Amino acid sequence: MRIATWNVNSVRTRAERIAAFLDRNDVDVLAMQETKTKDATFPYSTFEAAGYEVAHVGYDQWNGVAIASRVGLENVRTHFERQPSFAKKGDPVVEARAVGASCGGVDIWSLYVPNGREIGDPHYEYKLEFLYSLRETVDPQTLQLFTGDFNIAPRDEDVWDIAWFEGKTHVTEPERAAFQMLLESGLEEIRHADPYSFWDYKSMRFPKNEGMLIDFHLATPPLARRLQQAWVDVAERDDKGASDHAPVIADYDTADLALDQVR
Predict the structure, then answer these.
(1) Is 192 assigned a catalytic role?
(2) Annotated binding-site members for Mg(2+)
(3) Residues forming the annotated binding site?
(4) How far from 163 is each of 167, 168, 194, 201, CA to CA, in Å?
(5) Per-residue confidence (pLDDT) for residue 261, from 0 to 100
(6) Spatial distance between the Cα atoms of 150 and 218, rounded to a whole number of angstroms
(7) Are 183 and 130 in contact (CB under 8 A)?
(8) What is the pLDDT, as a whole number, of residue 239?
(9) Is 200 known to be catalytic?
(10) Where is this site: Important for catalytic activity (predicted)?
């Protein structure tokens, strides 16, 4: 099973581009983040024409997550248990930041972890709470994948210049500790040789390769043992109209699961 995660930065703007990516890379499941649209305006038809079922959670022009699958889409969940709510003003709401579904025998979560904005901002505390609450969803004995934009660079080498990030989010010890906590709860980070998955639009970051690795596959041990290969499709970023993130793709050997379904 080939599974990809991609912060698409507006699914309506890039629907045809995403469909071409799915076809070109023969992707079975795509987890998307920052779809930036309501459920009613999601371009379902583009994905259905390509042979995919879609589960999407979107309430307005912000956030938004989705799973597109051609290997089945069951047990759809529009948030995880105890997912925290947030509002800087007004009543707190559970934002469109998590969607889960069973795809071909694997329980997959597409996640858009809060950015955090600035150290000391209420959004920063919300980010930490989101991660610590997510831990309770992990079942290390089953086939689970938590994938998406985590908005954390867990190691110094995961950013182009750690000195530049002094006093900024994404690299602070509390954020990294929360990421490590997920690993200690029973998840394994799927590593690859590509250093970055995100390049800010500002200051020509992509041509300078001044990037960050903040998009991940975190798999439970039974799934991680099935890993065959993983990589970042950097070429998808190097084009006019591209998202500021590149897809992170991994192949898992799930042939026995498919056989079980046939039986």
Answers:
(1) no
(2) 7, 34, 149, 151, 244-245
(3) 7, 34, 149, 151, 244-245
(4) 9, 10, 21, 20
(5) 53
(6) 10
(7) no
(8) 85
(9) no
(10) 215
